[in-house]
Amino acid sequence: MTVDFHTAGETAGARGPARSDGLAGFDEDARLLEVVVTRRRQVADGVVALELARIDGAPLPPHAPGSHVDLHLGNGQVRQYSLCGDPDDAFRYRLGILRVDESRGGSRHVHTRVREGLQLLMSPPKNNFPLVADARHTLLFAGGIGITPLLAMARGLARLGRPFEIHYRARSRTRLAFVGELLDLAGPDRLTCYADDDPAPAKAFAAEAAIRRADPGVHVYVCGPRGFMDHVEEAARRAGVPEERVHEENFTNDVDLTGTPFTVVAARSNVTARVAADRTIAETLRDSGVQVPTSCETGVCGTCLTKVLAGEPDHRDVFQSPAQQRTDAAITLCCSRSRSEELVVDI
Ligand code: FES
Fold it and tell me: Which of 192, 188, 187, 132 has its CA nearest to residue 160?
């Protein structure tokens, strides 16, 4: 098995940047992999699983639980999807993708246009949601499609023989995906599924009670809609779990990109520009000829994370944890703004 888990002493939070300097960069996109969709199947209402292999038949890079890839959809859109397949299978990745009609269209494109045999570009795996493998106990809370990274974690923990539980909630029973696999990994005692349309639920979803029942050294992982994650994180806080043992991954950010104008200085490029109320820093710097790498453009993926040299950022991303944001060490140029009149960034 390929494992690159973090130990409790190595990770400070779920969303720590992957590079040692804490910043994403241009080299990520230079290593895009050419892949082909080898299998597509419906795994729940509104959820398809895609299996991907390299076009040249070579092995794919190894990946650890919590990893995701940036999938280039071929229509100019790039989306982040968790890897939820078997890391021992070096020739195949699996993604689970929910169709969200009210989103910006990435998942709709996957559901309507991405078929077996289609060739796509994909980043190597990135891991902003690493699993602490030596935790005394682990609770995995999934809301809807948030099950995908947690399925990979359940597989990793099961193979390491570590204690864990999964609490998996969806809007309806037909929207629960990968339940057979989860049952094989966790067994019936460690997997609890909750469907909001269940007329006679065996158990009500009670995150705080589950956390209080667990070992005091428990690590809590949560992935799903923002409201679900807020609920679980608040439950963990009330149960006394320290912030550094609560890990979340968020693939959506309903961000307001507008605000008051300010001046941005791109120190390495020697460019100074005025960011208008309805423009982002990334757009403004690009207009001035500065190359700004972006992917999600909503503060989710960390591709545009850049060191702050002076000024006070107005953080609007969900890539950095609140603790990371409080340091003001780095800013996502795609969506965040400035509270100070001038912001100096290292690009
Ligand atoms: Fe994804 Fe900025 S491009 S966080």
Answer: 132
Contacts of 276 (CB under 8 A, 6+ apart): 261, 284
Evaluate if pTM is beyond 0.85: no
Name which residue sits closest to atom 4 of ligand 1, judged by CA: 299
Query: If you measure from the C-alpha of residue 234 to the centroid of ligand 1, how many angstroms do you get, rounded to a whole number?
Result: 26
Each residue's pLDDT tens digit, 308-326 = 999 999 999 988 888 889 9
Indicate the average pLDDT of the chain. 88
Domain annotation for the chain: domains and CATH numbers:
27-122 (2.40.30.10), 137-249 (3.40.50.80), 262-345 (3.10.20.30)
CB of 301 shorter than 6 A to ligand 1? yes
Q: Is 295 in the pocket of ligand 1 (CB under 6 A)?
A: yes
Q: Is residue 46 in contact with ligand 1, taking CB distance under 6 Å?
A: no
341 DSSP 8-state letter:
S
